Amino acid sequence: MQTIQVRTTQNVFIHYPLASIGDRILAYLLDKLILIVFSIAIGLLLFYGNIELYWIWILLLGLPWLLFSLLFEIFMDGQTPGKRVLNIKVIRLNGTPASIGDYVLRWVFALVDFGFLNGAIAVILIAAGGKGQRLGDMVAGTSVIKQVEQKEITAQEVFVVADAEYQPVFAQAIQLNENDIDLIQRALEVNRDLGNSKPMLAVTEKLRAQLGIQTDMPPVKLLYTLIKDFNHLSSR
User: Fold this and answer.
1) Which of 117, 141, 156, 216 is the most exposed place for a label (fewest CB within 10 A)?
2) pTM score, two decimals?
3) Is the CB of residue 15 less than 8 Å from the CB of residue 143?
């Protein structure tokens, strides 16, 4: 599976699997099918309701086609119904969720991506660019990734919480902040779900140096311990 290497704001690289061209095309077609079914239903209602005002026809039949992808991506966190079915979504190249402005840029440039040569421009750019980007993605700084189904994990792995009697192992964990903890958790998830240990190892080495930690504790255990220590120390 082709992946995209994303540099986070903490200057650590994380790999995400790119959505394939096939997935993106199928998601696009599913969205269009939804629009066609919707338009037929609305058209029949207007016809049998003897609605003769053209602006109502234009409003109810035109706006959904114009704003479908934009509104769904904004309110469904980077997904349209077609993307949801194919389990793909839009993210920024720094790994963070796309903003409303990013979705607007993708929507505006979709006129070029899909308005000429029946979408061939988008397909060529996605296939040739290496980052899964059509023109709209290039302008917005986004790409479309495949969400990997998570493996079954235990409650202890999901909730890294220290009990009341817990004694912190590394007092230096209080120097961390919420962004650091988020990065640690994401690196652990990539290691667990994708089998990619590089982000986890990079984060581990960075934290060893930053906090002055000297330990032979394995990286996974060390990172989970730091999360527990931080949660315990910061909750006092």
Assistant:
1) 216
2) 0.64
3) no
